[in-house]
Amino acid sequence: xxGVLALYWVTLKRLKSSSWGKNSxxxxxxxxxxxxxxxxxxxxxxxxxxxxxxxxxxxQPDILINHNYxxxxxxxxxxxxxxxxYKSEIMAIxxxxxxxxxxxxxxxxxxxxxxSFSEDNTNFNQLMYSFTKQKDFHLSDNEIILGEYLAKELxxxxxxxxxxxxxxxxxxxxxxxxxxxxxxLVRDIERTGLYEIxxxxxxxxxxxxxxxxxxxxxxxxxxxxxxxxxxxNSRLVAGELNRIFMNRxxxxxxxxxxxxxxxxxxxxxxxxxxxxxxxxxxVIVASFNVISxxxxxxxxxxxxxxxxxxxxxxxxxxxxxxxxxxxxxAHIGIVIGLILGYGSAYWLxxxxxxxxxxxxxxxxxxxxxxSALMFLTIYITxxxxxxxxxxxxxxxxxxxxxxxxxxx
Amino acid sequence: xHIIKLNNVSKSYLEDKKKxxxxxxxxxTVEEGEFVAITGTSGCGxxxxxxxxxxxxxxxxxxxxxxxxxxxxxxxxxxxRNRNIGFIFQFHYLLDDFTALENVMIPLLVQGxxxxxxxxxxxxxIISLGIGQRMxxxxxxxxxxxxxxxxxxxxxxxxxxxLLADEPSGNLDEETTQNVISILRDLNKKGLxxxxxxxxxxxxxxxxxxYTIKEGKLIQA
Lengths: 408, 221
Known about the structure:
heterodimer; A: alpha+beta; two-stranded antiparallel sheet; B: Rossmann fold; four-stranded antiparallel sheet; 10 strands
């Protein structure tokens, strides 16, 4: 039987002209479409999820310690001593102040927030530099860095001026509202990949922020970057810090920002599973095509089956040969579908004609990063569904009577 | 030595829920190297008898002995058939996706021959039948006579003890028919036992063992 199977193997070389090739063309096309669609959708979805998680992780500190106002000297020392115990875990600590502002240029006014930047903290700054075009900067007091979308909406370029208005500084006078506007030179434009940051954040030198807000010490938080930037580790460290804060600094709370957005991520994971299950229906529909093709092949090759039986092959051996051969043909469709799905996903994410809406999807660009597990899952699922349908279709061979075949 | 022995073999079929007795208590003994011609009208049961001898079907009653073995005691019918019986049909039933050579190789590959060995043996048989130059052609590139000769090559390549030919010339012109019959007679001269079913009495020679089937009975003609 192995020899006969090997002989069938040679017909693959002339598949185009063989009856297998002609009959299975639509089956292969169906599988290509089904697997291609499934692969494309899953790659886009998985890459979206990964890009989003990565954007959240990269654009934000691992842990945000929220205290809203400047801590008293005693509490500040207490916080430092608590964090000191985690020295080996922490790569960088910085207290940043965030203030709500309106940025104006010409007729455009855009709500934004200013985040303070300290040149002393190298590790934090490395992260900041990675988002900018110049990858390195020294911010003087009159310079500002704007998020990519913020700059776009203000129609401002590097080297141009913008006005920053602090709403809390607006005063009423007998002449109307008096706004205190500060001029800034745009030093650079940053792109973190996270729309929410790129559309609202502006970065200003820490000393200048202090001048801007005066006595107002609201919006101060402590940002932590960890050595191990994994989600599990930041959740673990934040949990431990919160347990300590509960006893020693009850007004302070630590958040790991990935967990803060965990609802989005778990919704995405659930959605991914659901999309996979729904799209598997396409494979099941394609498998109906497989049933029809294999059944047609059996009908067309009824004499071949009969003659193979007279030549000494058992039904199960013929079924095995036909199963193997059909699966090889289906395999061609699966492999092409996987490649085509990947290629389409790559093209879709690298073209500039249309992109994701950042305000809806948080990010506007997906970086293709499919996992081997995802390909394996699609491959195994498809092989399983198609093998089952081929197997079920080939059961028709059991009903064939050699005499009836030879009398035809 | 008896190579085929049928004892009181009967066979019936159900047709429209009615039992149709095709063969009634058939007794037949065939010696090794005999050329047996079975004639009869269409639907008289010639092919049914051939299928029973070829183990493609089983009798309702009676016993069939082939090459000294009772068919009831054969454990692996397919292997026995592959090693001992060759078939030629009215329609050649060559496999369209394979070349003539590959078609002839199939029975050898079923027996477990290595590919190279199967190629050698199949080529030899095809050449011996005078169509060596056509062995790499596909069935649809061959004439009816060539196709039937390839079918003969496929039937004899495993050197079976019995060759069963079911109207092998039924679909051929007169010249090609004579050609195919002469090949069968040559094979018979070399010692191959042949059972030849036909409705054409002109193909039967006087020294053949000639039987005819009438009303389900096998009668010496």
